[in-house]
Amino acid sequence: MSVQRIGQLVLVSLVNVTVALGATQLPLPVSGKKTVTLTNSVGQNLCRFHSSAPLEEFEGTADEVSGSFTLDPQNLEATQGQIRVTVASMRTGIARRDEHLRSPDWLDAERYPTISFDIQKLTDVRITEQSRGRAVLTAKAVGLFSLHGVQKPMELPITLTYVLENAETRKRAPGDLVMVQSEFTLSLRDFNIRGRQGVIGSRVGENIRVWVTLYGSAM
Amino acid sequence: MRGWELVRWLGLFIALVVLALWLAHGGHVFTKDKQMVVYREHDPIFGTSRERVEWKPSFRLGLDIAGPVAAVGLGVWLLGRWIRRRKA
User: Fold this and answer.
1) Cα atoms in the Cβ-side hemisphere of radius 13 Å centred on B17
2) Given CB atoms, is B33 within the 8 Å cutoff of chain A?
3) Considering the domain A23-218, what is its CATH architecture?
């Protein structure tokens, strides 16, 4: 083996090590950046939330979830995009409470009709499962969370499952399929949501637990 | 006098029925008109369970309605008892 050939191998190895240090690759044969668009044909895009207060515990949902994000299989950390939830789609099981939720005292759906999360990057990406045509990774989605007109930088823990297109996936949507799950807590105070006097802390929890499940197809 | 006795016992009956109904509906503080139904099924594509949520109309009596109704019923019963003792 010539000195030149050894030099080339060392250089390639160094490049690979550098890439591996800075960027995590999707362990699947996917080429080029993919745009993942949320669609309910893959699965129900849904936010569930739970409030716990001395006078009452309640659960709610928001099912108008939309958005998209770009995913670079060679550099998962560079993932960017936006997820939006329509405030008007929030339900809690009591029609009057739903009306209150949308009112100016609470989320003020007229002025702030959507809750959004702008994904700026992923950190702490770890591939946790890898099988034929499917990869699962955990990461922290770093971005800006916008609620009630207030923007706050947040790091949300996510689990992302990527499935290569096959005969089964095509029954739901064309392209590779993606599922993202996340669970986190929101503080109402952080987003300047005060509600009617005395309600937060007695009938509505100061912190709201949120579970998000997103489904999309990657093209 | 007999009519008033009937009203008195009817008041107690209504109070007890309403409280029993409230307990049977889960003893919630606030009356609910919908119930969240979660359907879970195995998702072979993603290898996890897939959830689908629907809100179905379902009336569950809360203390916000049951409380005042029971209080009025009990009030009628106590008032009748007081009148009866006063007349005796």
Assistant:
1) 8
2) yes
3) Beta Barrel (2.40)
